[in-house]
Amino acid sequence: GNRGAAEREQKLSLLKMKVGDLHSVPIIIRETTTIQEAVVSLFLENVGNLIVTDAEGHLAGIVSRKDLLKVTLGNPSASSMPVSLIMTRRANVTTVEPEDTVLDAARKIIAQQIDSLPVVVKSESDNPDAWKVVGRITKTNIIKMLLDMVSEE
Ligand code: ADP
């Protein structure tokens, strides 16, 4: 009946929703940022992790609260070191592109047991040195989208 059709349509819109429609503004720091400054940014921006880029905004890595805790707990003098020494490097960073579906992003987040993914635009060359960071998509973004869809019923 009607209800079945509405449910099917809703499911379809969830499957079709694109990362580009949902992602938020990325919180970015430079590779040269110190660990101390990164901790301050984490608190000021109220996020769980920070995306690290080069001067042109190309993805270099990601640093999370646990990465920062781990290094500073063992060694207080580490706070003046650059985050590039402790970040998860680009080769190991899971990313999505704006054209990917939100469902793809959710699967990657669960599979990797992480909180968020950088959203990158890979230029024509596909050269990873030139992946431009345009956003971040988080568990919270995705749950909010689900709640919006339920309340639209
Ligand atoms: P927390 O530090 O609070 O556990 P995360 O779950 O975001 O926060 O990070 C867990 C680990 O995974 C950290 O070492 C972090 O550097 C790494 N990490 C975070 N996001 C990603 C990602 N998109 N791809 C790969 N590794 C990531």
TrEMBL record:
**Record key words, sorted:** CBS domain, Repeat
Entry keyword annotation includes Repeat: yes
Q: Which domain of life is it from?
A: Bacteria
Q: Which residues form the CBS domain?
A: 22-79, 87-152
The name this protein carries in UniProt is: Putative signal transduction protein
Organism of origin is: Paenibacillus algicola
Q: What is the lineage of its organism?
A: Bacteria, Bacillati, Bacillota, Bacilli, Bacillales
User: Which residues of the whole protein are included?
Assistant: 53 to 205 of 205
